[in-house]
Amino acid sequence: MAAYEVNGTTVEHDEEGYITNLSEWSKELAEIIAKAEEVDMNEEHWEVVNFLRDYYEEYQIAPAVRVLIKAVKKTMGPEKGSNKYMYELFPYGPAKQACKIAGLPKPTGCI
Amino acid sequence: MAPLDDAKPTTVTDVRGPDGHPLDIPRLACGAMADLQSFPAHVKHNERLGYPGELIDDWKEVAIAKIGELADKNRAFQVYLDACVKCGACTDKCHYFLGTGDPKNMPVARQDLLRSVYRRYYTFAGKHFPWLVGARDLTREVLDDWYNYYHQCSQCRRCSVFCPYGIDTAEISMAAREILDTVGKGQKYCNEIIGKVLDTGNNLGLQEKALRATLESLEEDIEEDTGVSVRIPLDEKGADILLIAPSADFFAEPHIEGLIGYAKVFHQAGVSWTVSSYASEAANFGLFIGSYENMREVSLRIRKAAQDLGVKRIVFGECGHAWRVGYSFLNTLAGPFDFLDQNFPIPQHILEFTHGMLERGELNIDKSRNDHIRLTFHDSCNVARGSRMGDMPGGQFEIPRAVLRAVCNNYFDMDRDTIMESTVCCGGGGGLLTDELLDLRTKGASPRMKAMQQVTEDHGVTHLAAICAICKTQFAKVMPKFGYDMDSILSVHQLVSNAIILDGQETNNTSAAED
Amino acid sequence: MLSTLYAVLFYFATILLVVGTGLKIRKYARTPAPLKIPTTPAPTTRSGVWLRMFREVVFFESLFKANKWIWLFGYLFHFGLLLVLLRHFRYFTQPVWFWVEIIQPFGVYASFAMVIGLAGLWARRFLVERIRYISAPSDHLMLVLLLAIGLSGMGMKFVAKTDIVAVKIFFQGLMRFQINDLPTDPLLLIHLGLVASLMIIFPISKLLHAPGLFFSPSRNQVDNPREQRHLAPWAAKLEKGGR
Question: What does the pLDDT look like over B143-171, one tens digit per residue?
Fold first, then answer.
């Protein structure tokens, strides 16, 4: 199985780039995954990633896109609380790409 | 995964073909999609469903025996293997063939991948004159071909409409996947998801606490939007109606807008209803892998939820294959439903419910709230060719259109050869809605997208409505590749939700008219 | 000697055709359909299904929707063949049934339709790339066999007439288990030899599409799953195993 290299240690990921052991996540790793995804992490990306991680900690799953957007609206302002803006941040989709960077498992299903 | 069109001579990635007809037939591009392999299931995914974790040593013998077993258990499989005369009527009917040109994506050729092996081991001609009748030994290459090409079939049944004997490639493809599972060669997307349903009740792995939080958040949104308190109840014992929605309706866009629509309709109907956290999934991927047993396991959750909650009726949300399983198979798999109210269809589709209310004039509709939308409708294949709505054959075409016309002023159908029973698949059905197959999904969507581009040119159509969670996700993903915004795809009940005026709703509220 | 050979051949071919096809039909009939899978929109009543099946058998409805060329050639061939076959009853009935007499003149022209249809279908196997791809040698040979049967039959009608009275006496004899003399014209022997081979391969070839159609669940099932519970015997056993 393939792995990311973080400060000399390896963090295993699955065939799609999602890390397999969620406890191995770190901010450095997030930057590395983001780079592989061609996402340049700025403050707003971090805002989303942090929210995802907090939500996951409480609910054991990523939030619905709508719930995420609502949260973003509250913290970043209404003009940024849109699906479109989320896709600007994470072109491959807030649910999947942002989850990958946040070290969460890939959401599965018809989504 | 390397992009396939660089290496292989496909000719049809450009959607606007020579004369741009949605059903233009490509030249053959042999082997164009041969290397496209969706991710194999991990050991734990296969074992969770009772299959061997990885390819077993005696896979060949087991696979051959399984063919015989299925031919004894399933008349369709037996008859369809025997009856094909290679007339070629189906050869230009598969959207994946139209999109890729790969001849193994022609329905008859896809069937022949398995039929050739069946003939070799189970027919006189194939045993003694294999070269004559195109019979082949089962080899590792053949097995890999099965895996790759039976995961390039969305089981949409379009070919079965046109076959003079009604041969349904979906049946062959489901059987093939069951054989593959039996020898330990399952597909990750489907098998991981079925495992999640067995463990948590839905494809997403959404636990009760998260589901409750999501639904409460939606209730807030509706109230903020309309000023009316509309409930989305969870696990409420004694409710009249159990709503079985695809879990995507709790998670993704535009699905969740559809859920809001159901809630508003139920609210106006004044019925008591509930979602179940135990059976929080309409989808049943057991269908995709051709597994009666797995499909039954998943279906029995719905029965148990209905009994535990003491409901009188079951209503399904917008989900294509789920409605096929619900309408056509639920009674078989998890019936009899003698404990439910027999005065209503068991199960009922949310569109049958809404349509009934509209017909009786029980919904207050302001169609102009959808005036910013010029709409067409995508018939989802499993609904179109594997189920029905209402009392009359073809109700599955009429009822969604009747509802859309009732809530939207600007409705236009696409080319007749691409809708209703001839509808072309969205390109993501049948267990193919996974990222590593995106190239195939895009190519497979091209007939539908061409048909949409036609109505865009002719009538200025801007939006596409669908009643299937897979279709909605697939279109949100691929429409941008065809010149549309990702939010050009809408839930049917999203349009209902836009147009409905709830009792007590502040009507100067314009948020519903936002694009 | 030759007469005996052909007599044996036809007894053998008839037995294989009847028993082989009978066994296949039994297999189809006994194999359960576990789920309701009619291709919808589908009839909601049994009589509706009869009507649907009638349209498939008589008009090739689905094929018409699919491809007009295949429909045209297929239709010419099948209904040409049907009339020709019915016309052949005159060699097995004495006195000849009256409706066979009526069909008789049409049957002759039907042979042209049959041959044109077959030629068209065969041409498509070469000319249409997609159909060339899916054709196995047997698919070509089957058409060649049918074409040769048609042409040899027409040859006897229009070119080198055979002693048709003697042929009739031969077959009427076979029906009473007597072996009479068969004329030895090459065309006749070729024609009969090919017909016997067709009978023999019927139950082991794609000619099974004929009975198969009637057992195709996507066409012969009633669309009433919500009203009536459908359960295969093996699935019922599965249920008893524990819910």
Answer: 999 999 999 999 999 999 999 999 999 99
Residue type, C41: P
Structure-block tokens of residue A102: 């946040």
Give domain status of residue A53, yes or no.
yes
Residue given tokens 């689905």 in the structure block: C62
Question: Residue A110 and residue B252: Cβ atoms within 8 Å?
Answer: yes
Q: Cis omega before residue B254 (within 30°)?
A: yes
Query: Which two structure tokens, joined as six digits, stand for A71?
Result: 């949260």
Rg of chain C taking only CA atoms, in angstroms: 22
CATH at residue A79: 1.10.10.370
**pLDDT of amino acid B508:** 62
User: How many other C-beta atoms can be found within 10 angstroms of the C-beta atom of residue C129?
Assistant: 12
Domains of chain A: total: 1
> Which ranges constitute the DSSP H helices of chain C?
2-15, 21-30, 46-59, 61-66, 68-87, 98-127, 129-134, 137-158, 164-175, 186-201, 209-214, 217-220, 233-240
Classify residue A108: in a domain, yes or no: no
DSSP character for B377?
A: E
Look up A99 and say whether it is catalytic.
no
Contact A64 B250 (CB under 8 A): yes
C240, two tokens: 């008893």
Name the residue among C33, C74, C135 with its Cβ closest to that of B75: C33
Residue A48 lies in a domain: yes
For residue B479, give Cα distances in angstroms to A47, A57, B453, B472. 28, 34, 11, 10
The pLDDT value given to residue A80: 86
Question: What does the mean pLDDT of chain B come to?
Answer: 94
Beta pairing class for B273-275 and B241-244:
parallel
When pLDDT is cut at 50, 70 and 90, the band that residue C105 belongs to is confident
Tens-place pLDDT, residues B314-352: 999 999 999 999 999 999 999 999 999 999 999 999 999
Q: Give the confidence band of C108 by pLDDT, cuts at 50, 70, 90.
A: confident
